[in-house]
Automatic annotation (TrEMBL):
Bound cofactor: record note: Binds 1 zinc ion per subunit. The zinc ion is important for the structural integrity of the protein.
Residue ranges occupied by any MsrB domain in the UniProt entry: 8-130
Keyword Zinc among UniProt keywords: yes
Catalytic center residues: C119 (nucleophile)
Cofactor or coenzyme needed: Zn(2+)
Highest taxon in the source lineage: Bacteria
PROSITE patterns hit by this protein: MSRB
A molecular function GO annotation: zinc ion binding
Residues involved in Zn(2+) binding: C47, C50, C96, C99
Protein name, entry field: Peptide methionine sulfoxide reductase MsrB
EC category: oxidoreductase
Family recorded in the similarity comment: Belongs to the MsrB Met sulfoxide reductase family.
PANTHER family, sorted: METHIONINE SULFOXIDE REDUCTASE, METHIONINE-R-SULFOXIDE REDUCTASE B1
Species of origin: Metapseudomonas resinovorans NBRC 106553
Length: 130
């Protein structure tokens, strides 16, 4: 996969304030406020920054967390996982492998078949309906 690198100022010009805050600065949208937290529209969820296909709606489920949740990405190589020790916790951050956008976090409390919960900010995604 080709890496997409841009200066922070370029991202600031291209993204909404909310997208920039979450995707480039590692922020989080408030629970139950995101566009996709409750949608059931079939399709593919792409990175809002670079357009990389990240998650399929077939892997989406209602975790009750207030953020879109998936039990797996489209492929392992479309995301990167990094240790995150912010806010006095140890979590695993999920980023887009192509452009390094912050997407959310992954937790080992999801459903079968993977047991994982990819808890992703709506603002970091763009749904392409089937």
């Amino acid at each position: 996969m080709d890496k997409l690198e841009k200066p922070l100022d370029s991202w600031r010009e291209e993204l909404s304030d909310a997208q920039f805050h979450v995707c480039r600065l590692g922020g989080t949208e408030r629970a139950f406020t995101g566009e996709y937290h409750a949608t059931k529209t079939p399709g593919i969820y792409h990175c809002a920054c670079c357009g990389e296909a990240l998650f399929d709606s077939d892997a989406k489920y209602d975790s009750g967390s207030g953020w879109p949740s998936y039990f797996q990405p489209l492929a392992k190589d479309v995301i990167t996982e990094l240790e995150d020790f912010s806010h006095g916790m140890h979590r695993i951050e999920v980023r887009c492998a192509r452009c390094d956008a912050h997407l959310g976090h992954v937790f080992p409390d999801g459903p079968r078949p993977t047991g994982m919960r990819y808890c992703i900010n709506s603002v970091s995604l763009k749904l392409e309906p089937r």
